[in-house]
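Need residues for this backbone.
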């Protein structure tokens, strides 16, 4: 692990020098072997993420719809239950994983993708890791409809975790980013969810979260802080 200052500002600084060089080499030729290069990222970051601090509490595989993949995990920060009972509200982050539309899951190996939610929970947010149907089982616009359904479920159950319904942020990675953006902006999906249903949308990468590389997470938190508090939010429709 590198020093905290460098890790906070530079990509790949949580990695050993040889691994960092490897990641920098992969960038320009990522599309040459997406599956192999994805495995290289997972192999580099998994041991680091396994040793990282975790959320205080995780509830897994909560159903938000009828399909077996209509499940999500909720990552709670320390003190979330007590704060909810006292009426204090927290920001929520919904994370939607990638996978080229045809593969992937909300937890690759217990560390990858979970790391995003562990990091946000450690910053005091309630973080939600969303599973959705893949394209072979639910062609377009199935994935985007699932994200809208998950948004609706979180809005309906916000009180359980002390979530501020006007402070729900949506983060999508790769295919998950396409689904997240589509459910909010695609005219063909009008009525599934609206832009007023979320406080903000972020399209992001994932491996750096909770690895000691703080730069990306801090940028997203800074964006979240620019969104005014107290504005009413319309809840998503199922």
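Answer:
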């Amino acid at each position: 692990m590198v020093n905290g200052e460098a890790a906070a500002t530079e990509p790949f600084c949580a990695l050993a020098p040889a691994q960092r060089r490897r990641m920098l080499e992969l960038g320009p030729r990522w599309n040459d072997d997406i599956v192999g290069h994805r495995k290289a990222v997972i192999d580099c970051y998994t041991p680091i993420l396994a040793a990282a601090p975790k959320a205080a509490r995780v509830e897994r595989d909560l159903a938000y719809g009828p399909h077996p993949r209509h499940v999500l995990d909720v990552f709670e920060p320390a003190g979330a239950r007590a704060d909810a009972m006292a009426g204090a509200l927290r920001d929520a982050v919904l994370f939607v994983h990638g996978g080229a539309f045809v593969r992937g899951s909300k937890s690759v190996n217990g560390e990858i993708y979970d790391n995003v939610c562990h990091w946000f929970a450690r910053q005091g947010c309630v973080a939600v890791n969303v599973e959705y149907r893949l394209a072979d089982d639910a062609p377009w616009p199935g994935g985007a409809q699932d994200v809208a359904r998950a948004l609706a479920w979180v809005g309906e159950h916000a009180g359980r975790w002390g979530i501020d319904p006007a402070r729900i942020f949506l983060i999508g990675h790769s295919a998950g980013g396409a689904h997240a953006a589509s459910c909010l902006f695609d005219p063909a999906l009008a009525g599934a969810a609206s832009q007023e249903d979320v406080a903000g949308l972020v399209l992001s990468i994932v491996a750096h979260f909770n690895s000691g590389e703080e730069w990306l997470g801090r940028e997203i938190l800074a964006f979240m802080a620019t969104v005014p508090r107290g504005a009413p939010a319309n809840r998503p429709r199922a």
